[in-house]
Amino acid sequence: ISGGNTGRVFTISSNLAVTISGLTICNGVNAGTNGASGSAGGDGYGGGILNNGSIMAITGCVLSNNAASGGNGSPSGGGGGTALGGAVYNNGGTLNATNCTFVSNASSGGSSGSSVRDTPGGPGGNALGGAIYNNGGTLTVVLCVLSNNLAKGGFGGPLHYPAGYDGGSAFGGG
After folding, report:
1. Is-contact 145 97, C-beta < 8 A?
2. Measured at the alpha carbon of residue 161, what is the angle toward residues 158 and 166, in degrees to the nearest 5?
3. DSSP readout, 77-94?
């Protein structure tokens, strides 16, 4: 099942029991909005699957080429948005992944807004979990392959401004 590089493939509401088996979940995208005047970019969550507090099992699935990206900050100090879980964002739920392949998924933090006059650009957005990001839930991964997944922090403000306006951090490419 493809998101067509235009939207997330599955959004799972809270308090459900869901099993997905034997599917290829690919080309899902979730992007944060770009920041309005002087504000930070929005966050991006789970390009392939967003599990919002349910009990979820994925078995024998392939999750590939999914992406979460933070929005870009606006000029005058807007920082980049955070990206969480290129393939899956597990938000307070239970996620059990068995015999799955997570390949070529990405989370990319948004870039800071450009500087304007005496106001430096903001920090780049963080990127966490190229394949999976678990936010306060339970995650079990058994006999899965994680390959060529990427977490990449966004670009920070211009170099000619004071220290502290760095690119975002990246953790958990896989």
Report:
1. no
2. 60
3. TPPPPPEE-SSEEEESSE
